[in-house]
Task: structure prediction
Amino acid sequence: MSQALLPAEEPILVPSLLRHLALPGLLDSLWPALRPAIAAGFVAAAAEDLRGQAAAAPIPARCSMTPIDDPVIRQTAGRFLIATSTMVVAGSLLGTVLRTCQRSGA
Amino acid sequence: MGNPPLLPEVAEADAAGEVAAVYEEIRATLGIPFVGLIYRNLAVEPGRLASAWGQLQPFFADPATWRVAARLHWQEGDTPPLPAVAELTSLGLDERFFDRAVATLDAYDRANRLNLLGLTALLRPRGWDDSADGGAGSCCCRNLGPPRRAAAAAGGRRAAGG
Result:
């Protein structure tokens, strides 16, 4: 799932959210619900939209931050910026599916 | 050929000293019971986690950051229909499981939104004038004093508990 959600890059980044849901059979069952949204480009597009909003958001505390110069931290932060925005969207979709199951008593 | 390597990390259970202390601050500041992978990865090399967290902690402690995080959204109408997940019924999952899973997803949602804002702020170019870009990227620098850290931290934790 993480390879379908995130850009191909090594070492592999498996989001903690997916690890939390890695119970026997659960991710296998949820994957068919998420896959069409990924294949249609919805998850990537929504994540890009979120990144744009994050960059444009008026946040006072940003002014007191010193941009990081460390190239390793910048590279890591850049990779996780994609992963984090993607997982906001994917997590929301998974939540919708689980809430539907919760309501229906699945 | 073996499996590709996973991103290295310092697991929460293995954290000691400065790393354990920063992990505790992360959990308290973000109001979550776990430490995200980005922090566990930054902890692999000494000093990197503390350096990044030193910038991020005051940012996350500001209630304004939380308000912006909660407002991040996409067009719900664009969401494709989600197929039914009939297979879940065969897994024998009870109501408690769904309650816990939904609570976990809510915690991740909160943390991921905040981290998205924090990483964006960390990565902005040095010298970028937030107040002079016509609104995009504005951080409302003008007429603001230094961050009100104590009050902000209290506000952040309240928000985290909600």
